[in-house]
Model the fold of this input.
Amino acid sequence: MPQLLSIVEVGGYADFTSLYQQAGFQVEKATTMRKALGLLKKQFPKVIVAEFNFAPKYGSFISNVDSLMALIVGKSPSTRLVLFVHKEEHHHLQRLCQRFPTLQLTTFTYPIQVDALQQTLTS
Done:
């Protein structure tokens, strides 16, 4: 069964675990990016679902997912990344994506459209 890593740092949206399982994935969860990066040292899943969070506190980084994106591109380019992003932060994500043009990335703007997410996971 393919694996999916769900990284929920802030939340505030529905728990999609059952949707991931219905799509045929074994789900692993992490509540911080640090824990998620630790899990990825052992094994890369087929899909990673995470929240995009922009904040000036990240210093030279744009967001919470900079390191995750670099790790995927460097170690497991076949891993698909699905990001949930607030509409007002989308331009920051576009800036970040310029650094990783080969990344297999799908984005969803809040509120998450469940049908579209399910379609992405099953394709």
